[in-house]
Amino acid sequence: MTTYHVSVLGGGQLARMMQQAAISLDIELKVLAEAPDGSAAKVVPTAPVGDCRVIDDVQAVLAEPLDVITFEHEHVPDPVLKEIQKHYPVRPRPEALIYAQDKLEMRQKIAELGLPVPAFKAIETNSELETFIDQYGPEVVVKTTRGGYDGKGVRVVSQASDIADWLSQDYGLIAEQKINFSRELAVLVARRPSGETEVAGQKRAGEMKCWPITQTEQRDGVCYSAIAPAPNLDPKVAEKALEAAQIIAAELDVTGVLAVEMFLCDDEGTFYINELAMRPHNSGHWTIDGAHTSQFAQHLRAVLDLPLTSPELSCGTAVMVNLLGSNLVDPAAAIGQVAQVAPEARVHLYGKGVRPGRKLGHVTVTGTDYQSCLEQAERAVNVLKGN
């Protein structure tokens, strides 16, 4: 039996959950971890500590045998990517990853593909922002083009003085129209280099598989919950959203899991593409317990160019709720109590130290009614929070 070897740059909870999938696929994972007690370092035998921005540190996970290098975040600098690409397959490739790393590059590319995005403009001066606010205000969204996540690097502003500190430090900035949306959706698609997929009547390179569209809720810029399939979503809207995600995956030549976050504005199906992530994504954690193939197993299959397997739901509905901070020193101490108050809940803890608002784990409940699943998941999370 062939044993595959995959190196992952980044040692957080996504790499930790990749390890769970890797075990069943007989894949040997190596992880470049940020700390010896990091989330993935606690469960991956080969997890040297290093900085993914430093090529000498990255060398620690490049020893043979090695089939492919992939990521659990987008913060690996392009010079490092280009250097390791000379010697090993890097998936997704740097030429694709740039669109998950740089929000301006992403907006320009999605618009070029003819897909819907909010109005946007690169911002360098006060006057440029004030002009944009005059056109699209009274409030607009300003983001740092690189480095932001979980609400960091994002501000809703009504005047240029609201980002005076960013302008003074010469950050790369992009202003975007603030969209009034009815709900947020996430489309997850996995793509491998081989094969082809028919999208909107056109053959596109690469085998692709999509999970059912997920509805997400953000609180303070951080994902709070995910429901799959998105409740009461018009099938025509779902079809358009799935097509858009697959077009992006094919046209950007993405390998692995691509998450496309969208704003749905009305019942007529108007949506705008908001963010891209080229890796397993928080909105897809429910797939571990609620799909025939989890996003982590499918990502590993895709980057190794192995045939993809069914992404369909293995239940009627799946609901995930994140554990964001806790009043307990160790939420694991409450797992027994969770079993009493929410017996259907499946708890996933990330082995992290407790900090206010920190993603410490998630809970998934599957069933037939999303409301009852959500209620049970929230009960479980409240126990883990010590409420």
Automatic annotation (TrEMBL):
Keywords: ATP-binding, Ligase, Nucleotide-binding, Purine biosynthesis. Its EC number is 6.3.4.18. It catalyses: 5-amino-1-(5-phospho-beta-D-ribosyl)imidazole + hydrogencarbonate + ATP = 5-carboxyamino-1-(5-phospho-D-ribosyl)imidazole + ADP + phosphate + 2 H(+). One of its GO terms (molecular function) is 5-(carboxyamino)imidazole ribonucleotide synthase activity. GO terms for biological process: 'de novo' IMP biosynthetic process. Residues 107-304 form the ATP-grasp domain. InterPro entries: ATP-grasp, ATP-grasp_carboxylate-amine, ATP_grasp_subdomain_1, PreATP-grasp_dom_sf, PurK, PurK_C, PurT/PurK_preATP-grasp, Rudment_hybrid_motif. Pathway: Purine metabolism; IMP biosynthesis via de novo pathway; 5-amino-1-(5-phospho-D-ribosyl)imidazole-4-carboxylate from 5-amino-1-(5-phospho-D-ribosyl)imidazole (N5-CAIR route): step 1/2. It is an enzyme of class 6 (ligase). The keyword ATP-binding applies. The keyword Nucleotide-binding applies. It holds the Pfam family ATP-grasp. GO terms for cellular component: cytosol. It comes from the Bacteria. HAMAP family: PurK (MF_01928). Catalyzes the ATP-dependent conversion of 5-aminoimidazole ribonucleotide (AIR) and HCO(3)- to N5-carboxyaminoimidazole ribonucleotide (N5-CAIR). Catalyzes the ATP-dependent conversion of 5-aminoimidazole ribonucleotide (AIR) and HCO(3)(-) to N5-carboxyaminoimidazole ribonucleotide (N5-CAIR). Homodimer. Belongs to the PurK/PurT family. This is N5-carboxyaminoimidazole ribonucleotide synthase. It comes from Boudabousia liubingyangii.
